[in-house]
Amino acid sequence: GKPYLFPNVPGIIALATDLAPREDIEIPVLDLNKIDEIAEFIMGKYSG
Questions:
Q1: pTM, two decimal places
Q2: Tens place of pLDDT per residue across the chain (48 aa)
Q3: CB-side exposure of 41: number of CA atoms within 13 Å?
Q4: 47 lies in which domain range?
Q5: DSSP of 14-35, one letter per residue?
Q6: Number of domains into which the chain is organized
């Protein structure tokens, strides 16, 4: 597969994927198929 865009692209706050991520991921990993959880993560990150 292609390399991840982070940490080379600033502003990436999480990885959403339907594949097993590498073990060395240092940002939150979200299940691409769980849209509600992704929305909750984004809302929690930017609300308030």
A1: 0.80
A2: 788 898 899 999 999 999 998 888 999 999 999 999 999 999 999 997
A3: 15
A4: 1-48
A5: -EEESSPPPTT--S-EEETT-H
A6: 1
